[in-house]
Every structure is written in structure tokens, then in C-alpha cells.
């Protein structure tokens, strides 16, 4: 089963966590979606505020429930608060749902409970910042069902095949032990994050080791972890932390994939079969048909 959009489809924009404080960027993102021929379902709750959230938990949860039969749910932005909705156990349905960062909690929950359609990729307020190749990649995935290969830096050789899971590292770590964290056995795992101190990343990788999350995975990749791609010293610290924390495993590792908070956030559909090549640095996603 795979879902593809067509021109004229009605889609839903939701803000499951923080309220929208970038209205100009938000409108630019909507224009991109409309230029693709999509219709936007009007949602009055997008303008709501409750503390630093886009409405209280019940309001945001009800909007998520109402949109379950949508052709596409695309999240407005990240921030914080999406995981609070998981306490109410969403009634997931098969269908496309696009986001990353804080909304990874929802993507992982849907995937872990056997429903297809979660996509890690750009959200509405960030669409206008994406380079042309990233926007074209997203459009191809949504309308045609395929994505091109992407390339990272090999840290350990070998080739892994398996279903792919992509998530923000912090969000994934705090879901371990809940019903919303997927079975990682035989999977290719990709992590991204933003501006976390090295000691915090070390702590999370250590926790992944202690919970045996990485014991039977097929391969692992790391996207961007900082907005500053020119900070080579910090990038070396991160690379060395990854190598040291994962040295006892034998799966292939890729580093610096174009996935995450920097402009150029390559969309990845969770649950697709993928190949991670630690020899040439290529991550490829199989077409489902």
C-alpha cells in the first residue's frame, strides 16, 4: 500500500506543538504547496495560543484526530509539545504525514503501531528555505512515490539493507520504553538533532547502548546536528563521539547526511526498504512498486 497525491487534493496543516510565530514564513510555505496544485483545508486552530503551544492539549489532539483521513497531514513547525498528544493515544490511520524535529514523536508512534505514511522531511514554515533539489525531492515523493539517492561520509564500511527509520535523536531517546518507540531489529536508523552539546549527544548514545536499542540494527546514519556547517572543530568532536560510542558494533555507519535542521533536509519515508552503503557513502531508498 502506498499513497500518492494528485493535483486538487485537499491536505491538512496542523500545529501539534508550539504555536506559529513565523507567519511570513508560514505563508511562503503555503504558497509552495498551492503551486504544487494542492488545496489547503482551513484550520482555525492554527492561530490559537495556550502558553507556548498552539492551543491546549485537547484542542491539538482533536485536530490531529479529525485529520486522520486526510490525503496529507503536514505539520506547520517543530518546537515542543507534540509528544504530549501521545498520552491520549491517537487513532492512527494509514496515510501521508510529514514533519521532523519535535513532531518525530508522532511519526515514530504511527510507524511503531503498524500504520504507513510517516515521512521525515521539511515542514510548512521551513519549505521556503529548502533548495530546489530538496523541494523537487519532496514533490517527487508525495506525487510519484520515489526519491533519489543521497550521500554522506562513511565512518565504517559494509552494506546494510532493511526498513528505514529516521528521527530526531532527542525525541527518539525519550520514547524508548513506551508503546510509541518502534522495534529497531534489522532496521536502518538515521538520527538528526540541532545544537545539542556533545556531552548530551554522548549521554543519549550511551542510553541507546544501555537499552540495547542498537544491538540488532542493520546500519546507522547521522544527519545534521548543527546549523553551522562550517564549524569543523565541533563536527570532528561529534564524529569522534559517534565512532567511540559505536566502536564495538559491526554495522556500517554514515555521517553528515543531508537530513535535519539545516537547509537541504532530504525527505525520507519511514518503513521503506533502504540500502546504507558504508563503502561509498550512499543511502538509497527502494521504490515500493
TrEMBL record:
Protein name: Putative carboxypeptidase
InterPro entries in the cross-refs: Carboxypeptidase_A_C_sf, Class_I_gatase-like, LdcA_N, Peptidase_S66_N, Peptidase_S66C, S66_fam
Gene3D superfamilies: Class I glutamine amidotransferase-like, LD-carboxypeptidase A C-terminal domain-like
Enzyme's top EC category: hydrolase
A single BP term in Gene Ontology: proteolysis
GO terms, molecular function: metallocarboxypeptidase activity; muramoyltetrapeptide carboxypeptidase activity; serine-type peptidase activity
Keywords: Carboxypeptidase, Hydrolase, Protease, Serine protease
LD-carboxypeptidase C-terminal domain: residues covered: 161-276
Limits of the LD-carboxypeptidase N-terminal domain: 11-121
Positions annotated as active site in the UniProt record: 101 (nucleophile), 192 (charge relay system), 261 (charge relay system)
Keyword flag Nucleotide-binding: no
Family the entry assigns: Belongs to the peptidase S66 family.
Coiled-coil ranges from the UniProt annotation: none
EC number: 3.4.17.1, 3.4.17.13
A family per Pfam: Peptidase_S66
The species this protein was found in: Prochlorococcus marinus (strain MIT 9301)
Amino acid at each position: 500500500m502506498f499513497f500518492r497525491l494528485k493535483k486538487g487534493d485537499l491536505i491538512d496543516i496542523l500545529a501539534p506543538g508550539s504555536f506559529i510565530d513565523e507567519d511570513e514564513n508560514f505563508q511562503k510555505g503555503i504558497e509552495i504547496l498551492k503551486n504544487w496544485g494542492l488545496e489547503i483545508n482551513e484550520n482555525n486552530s492554527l492561530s490559537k495560543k495556550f502558553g507556548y503551544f498552539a492551543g491546549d492539549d485537547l484542542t491539538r489532539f482533536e485536530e490531529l484526530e479529525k485529520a486522520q483521513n486526510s490525503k496529507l497531514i503536514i505539520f506547520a513547525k517543530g518546537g515542543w509539545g507534540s509528544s504530549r498528544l501521545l498520552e491520549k493515544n491517537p487513532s492512527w490511520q494509514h496515510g501521508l504525514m510529514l514533519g521532523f524535529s519535535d513532531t518525530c514523536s508522532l511519526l515514530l508512534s504511527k510507524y511503531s503501531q503498524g500504520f504507513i505514511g510517516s515521512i521525515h522531511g521539511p515542514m510548512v514554515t521551513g519549505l521556503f528555505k529548502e533548495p530546489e533539489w530538496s523541494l523537487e525531492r519532496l514533490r517527487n515523493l508525495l506525487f510519484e512515490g520515489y526519491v533519489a539517492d543521497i550521500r554522506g561520509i562513511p565512518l565504517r564500511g559494509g552494506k546494510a539493507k532493511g526498513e528505514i527509520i529516521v528521527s530526531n535523536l532527542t525525541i527518539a531517546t525519550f520514547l524508548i520504553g513506551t508503546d510509541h518507540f518502534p522495534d529497531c531489529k534489522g532496521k536502518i536508523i538515521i538520527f538528526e538533532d540541532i545544537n545539542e552539546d556533545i556531552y548530551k549527544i554522548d549521554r543519549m548514545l550511551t542510553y541507546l547502548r544501555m537499552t540495547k536499542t542498537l544491538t540488532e540494527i542493520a546500519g546507522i546514519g547521522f544527519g545534521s546536528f548543527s546549523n553551522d556547517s562550517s564549524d569543523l572543530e565541533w563536527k570532528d568532536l561529534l564524529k569522534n563521539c559517534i565512532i567511540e560510542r559505536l566502536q564495538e558494533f559491526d554495522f556500517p555507519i554514515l555521517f553528515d547526511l543531508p537530513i535535519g535542521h539545516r537547509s537541504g533536509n532530504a525527505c525520507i519515508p519511514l518503513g521503506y526498504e533502504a540500502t546504507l552503503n558504508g563503502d561509498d557513502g550512499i543511502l538509497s531508498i527502494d521504490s515500493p512498486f
